[in-house]
Amino acid sequence: MIKHDVKNINLAKKGVAHIEWAEQDMPVLRLIRKRFAAEKPLQGKRVSACLHVTSETANLMRTLQAGGADICLCASNPLSTQDDVAAALVAEYGIPTFAIKGEDDDTYYKHIAAVLDHKPQLTMDDGADVVSILHKTRRELLPDVIGGTEETTTGVIRLRALQQEGKLEYPIIAVNDANTKHLFDNRYGTGQSTIDGVIRATNALLAGKTFVVAGYGWCSRGIAMRAQGLGANVIVTEIDPLKALEAVMDGYRVMPMVEAAPLGDIFVTSTGNINVIDKAHFEVMKDGAIVANSGHFNVELNIPVLQEMAVKCDQPRGFVDQYTLADGRRISVLGEGRLVNLAAAEGHPSAVMDMSFANQALSAEYMVKNYASLKKIVYTVPAEIDSDIAGLKLHSMGISIDTLTEEQRVYLSSWESGT
Description:
Layout: E1 4-5, H1 12-23, H2 27-39, E2 46-51, H3 55-66, E3 70-75, H4 83-91, E4 97-98, H5 105-116, E5 122-125, H6 129-136, E6 147-150, H7 153-164, E7 172-174, H8 179-202, E8 210-214, H9 218-229, E9 233-237, H10 241-249, E10 253-254, H11 257-260, E11 266-269, H12 279-282, E12 289-293, H13 303-309, E13 310-317, E14 320-325, E15 330-334, H14 340-343, H15 350-370, E16 378-380, H16 383-396, H17 406-412
């Protein structure tokens, strides 16, 4: 048996069924896998991937494997792993996998160490933990690394900070910045899966509730849109005046979190920042408030301060920690403050991850072909890759669009035509 650390290898059969089910809704990735199998663009390249270990991710791993890559995978969040999928990756597809849903922090970092022991030439990150550790404590591995990809807003922020300090040691493509990623995965994927996680964890009725969304980036827009669609009264909090103005024009109430805190029934953060919901907010929340996070790290909720404020903590349902405060108010935190869409649900639907993982696969191919000419900076996904993925997705949906006539091409490239 190949190296691995999964919950139960005997779950593999169930995992295969889930992986194949997801594959049915990932036609773009299937097309890429078919080409990769014929061309082997990643032949022999060692890839260390730190991603949410889901059925969709498994299909990305199969695609990289078909392209000739030598892959090792670990989880990018302690609560995001689907244990049956992890087992299937090992037993059925021969991919070293280190991921257990609910693993503690020590195990989480032990698993990252395991994929780094693979001596990567390419890194594939979801939150930049692998890149961070490479740059801090495993620098002896850096000379072999030719490039990487990063899929999340949070990870891209960290990488740009590393670049700004002049310390980024290899080129990385910000997959998150592709239009076929953030406009769809972040908005529609996060929107639907976050609401799914909140409802699965609580069985709460959203209609008529006051639903507070922290932030108004693409993830938060999707959450606000879906909550409003289910009848919630949505409040948005922001620090960016432009995004706040957009939220107002989109029909939401906008105010500081300290004003929203006593009004909200359900709170969801998705900002990428720390202590977005803090002591001052917990102090004024109503009894029964539900608090969740859909950002990559659990730091958006100041859970340590809530634990200090509480006189007891119960677990009335799976993925619900209900804190009782000294005055009797109860505040429930979902999924330990980790990504609620993966902790309490199944993450994004396969159809939207099809485009995100197509970006991952094609960006990895691009990096292998072009790394020698790239600088040690964060790159966006090449426009032609973005456009090709959109075209393939439309084709898979049976949708055709217009093309420019020669007359129209000339007109758009001319400065002489006017009124």
